[in-house]
């Protein structure tokens, strides 16, 4: 088996194992994540009442409109992103944890933006009959929910997939001697 094919196969099995483990742990993690989302949505929408309905939904109310936001697709994106980063080859533990934290922060920010824009768009439709913002947010949310985890993963880990340059030992010794002088 070629090295590249073997690397992809190992990545695939690590990814599946990480995804399964995270899916099993999700019921304990989901409650915390939804509480965090609620706090950030409330910070962006101080005039709204934001309540956690379950581990996968929020209720947002700004009179006269109330909206329940289902977070199922968002939840899957978090699991997908974490599993992809955990399975990525060529990263030491510190690099992996930094990328995981940054990736989850970016994904969470996208989730908050998606929720706030979706609510504002529905609010505009209810009050003014304006569908322009709603069309944009549904397109952004629909596409974003499908690809955001993969895009963030690629942006954070693309270098680990590239072949590493091997510096010959003789060149390393010469560089070391030059630096010493």
Write out key terms for the chains shown.
mainly alpha; 3 strands; 73% helix; 3-stranded antiparallel sheet; 181 residues; single chain
Q: What is the element layout, followed by pairings?
A:
Layout: H1 3-44, E1 49-54, E2 57-62, E3 65-70, H2 72-87, H3 93-128, H4 132-157, H5 169-180
Description:
This protein has 181 residues and is mainly alpha-helical. 73% of the residues lie in helices and 10% in strands. The protein has helices at 3-44, 72-87, 93-128, 132-157, 169-180; strands at residues 49-54, 57-62, 65-70. The relative contact order is 0.11. The chain has a 3-stranded antiparallel beta sheet with strand order 1-2-3.
In short:
The chain is mainly α.
Low-confidence stretches: none
- From the N-terminal CA to the C-terminal CA, the straight-line distance is 46 Å
Q: Let me know the largest β-sheet.
A: 3 strands, antiparallel
Question: Strands across the major sheet, in which order?
Answer: 1-2-3
Number of strands: 3
Helix content: over 70%
What are the secondary-structure elements, in order, as H or E? HEEEHHHH
Structural class: mainly alpha
Radius of gyration: 22 Å
Query: Can you give the mean pLDDT?
Result: 82
Overall geometry comes to elongated
Strand content: 5-15%
Oligomer: single chain
Number of helices in the DSSP assignment: 5
């Amino acid at each position: 088996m070629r090295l590249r094919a073997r690397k992809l196969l190992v990545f695939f099995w690590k990814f599946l194992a990480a995804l399964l483990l995270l899916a099993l742990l999700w019921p304990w993690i989901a409650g915390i994540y939804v509480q965090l989302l609620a706090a950030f949505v409330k910070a962006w929408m101080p005039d709204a009442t934001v309540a956690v309905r379950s581990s996968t939904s929020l209720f947002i109310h700004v009179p006269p409109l109330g909206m329940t936001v289902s977070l199922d697709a968002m939840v899957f994106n978090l699991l997908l992103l974490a599993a992809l980063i955990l399975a990525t080859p060529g990263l030491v533990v510190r690099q992996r944890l930094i990328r995981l934290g940054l990736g989850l922060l970016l994904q969470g920010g996208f989730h908050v933006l998606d929720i706030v824009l979706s609510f504002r768009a529905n609010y505009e439709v209810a009050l003014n009959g304006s569908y322009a913002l709603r069309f944009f947010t549904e397109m952004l949310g629909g596409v974003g929910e499908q690809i955001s985890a993969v895009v963030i993963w690629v942006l954070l880990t693309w270098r680990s997939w590239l072949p590493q340059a091997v510096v010959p030992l003789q060149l390393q010794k010469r560089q070391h001697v030059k630096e010493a002088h």
